[in-house]
Amino acid sequence: MTNKKLIISFIILLLISQLNYIYAEEDIRYTNLLNQSTIKKKLLKAHFIDVGQADSTLIQLPNNQNILIDGGNNSDASLIIRYLNNLHIKKIDYLIATHPHEDHIGGLDNIINNFKINKIYMPEVSHTSQSFKDLLLSISNKGLKINAAKTGISLLDDNKLHIKIIAPIKNYYDELNNYSVIAKITFDKISILFTGDAESEVEKELLDTNYNLEADLLKVAHHGSNSSTTSSFLKRVNPKYAVISVGKNNKYGHPNKSTLRKLQQEDIKVFRTDKQGTIVAISNGKSISFNKKELSTKESKLIDSPLKITRLDLKKELLVIKNSSNKRLDISNWKLISLRGKQEFIFPKGTVIRPGKNLTIVSGRRAKKAKEQIVWTKKYIWNNQGDFAQLYNSKNQLVSEYY
Fold first, then answer.
1. How many CB atoms are located within 10 Å of the residue 57 CB?
2. What distance in Å separates the CA atoms of residue 185 and residue 163, rounded to the nearest whole number?
3. Which tens digit of pLDDT belongs to each residue from 85-99?
């Protein structure tokens, strides 16, 4: 082989090796990009921490910031601190105390003492409890300030990530629960609505606004109490999923059967801390997945009956039961329940509803007996801020309900 041929062969081999090096570098670069895209994959994680009959939710935002909504009871502080430490969280960017009840703020003083806190949001209402005083003291000792939480405040408005406070709306409420901070977090196409212990009065106020209340996930208000989650509010939010933070075998009967039934009727997938422990919802901005499987919301089913509650007027203190059959129906010893106040009325012997007719049950100071009308009591039964009724037959089977 001549020197010229040797030189040409050497040049060709050199070019081939150089190309292989370039291709190898591209492979490495491509693999690194894949790894980086996996590592930097932006997720929103909402941890509904199991603190029994209390509330505490940690939200890890896709921008690496953290929100803590409420801190459970005083006795829950160490549990929450341990939970945050296990996630290597050192800073809480937004701390929200929804309202001054102990089961929501009890552990916050210790949490503030143990973590770096950026901003604190609280409603403009005070309380005389020691838990509230301890919270204020911890805030003061760290030189922090309280930002007033009220409707219209935006915590974050950044490209596909938005956090907005939509309640409280008014400056004064009779019920402390109604001062609850309600916040909506939107990440791309997914939204979560956090409702504290807000009751039906606030839900009605929100329905009268032009706020977009729709959310994929609803943190059910007031531990599933029947004081909240009205049918009209639930329909407006229209969630796919619902999380109830509630204590096992609690003395309040939470979550109320009426609330579970409404969730069932709207085909909403339900998660509960009393039955499943801590619930973690994870979203990539397009969908939501959970660390647990949804529960069945099936409660006692309505039996077929021509008797239906067709009207409940809370202010006029009257309820109407209609007999849609062509027969006289005896409802002696049947039971009517006001779910909000847990009052019961047993229909007296000989109570009959004629075919195609209505029977009206009245209560309150002005209640009078009349044709096709009977008096429950001279006391006021129905709660004007929201109430529900159920009708059971003499075998204690649920015949009708009205929400």
1. 23
2. 5
3. 999 999 999 999 999
Report yes or no: 98 and 104 within 8 Å, Cβ to Cβ: yes
**Mean pLDDT, residues 110-121:** 98
Question: Residue 234 to residues 187, 204, 230, 260, 374: CA-CA distances in angstroms?
Answer: 21, 11, 6, 12, 33
CA distance 156 to 184: 11
pTM passes above 0.85: no
| Cα angle value 309/313/318 (rounded, 5°) | 75
What does the pLDDT look like over 284-321, one tens digit per residue?
Answer: 999 999 999 998 655 556 788 999 999 999 999 999 99
The distance from CA 66 to its chain's CA centroid, rounded to whole angstroms, is 19
CA distance 390 to 396: 11
**Which residue, among 219, 221, 201, 203, has the nearest Cα to 211 in the 3D structure?**
203
Q: Residues 102, 131: contact at Cβ < 8 Å?
A: yes
CA of 156: how far to CAs of 45, 170, 323, 395, in Å? 16, 22, 55, 55
Q: Is 343 helix (H, G, I), strand (E, B) or coil?
A: strand
- CB under 8 Å to 363, separation ≥6 — which residues? 317, 318, 375, 376, 377, 378, 379, 380, 381, 382
Those residues whose C-beta lies under 8 Å from the C-beta of residue 378, and which sit 6 or more positions away, are 363, 364, 365, 367
Q: Measure the CA–CA gap between 189 and 251, rounded to whole angstroms.
A: 38
Q: Write the DSSP assignment of 206-269 as a string of letters.
A: HHTS------SEEE-GGGG-TTS--HHHHHHH--SEEEE---TT-TT-PSPHHHHHHHHHTT-E
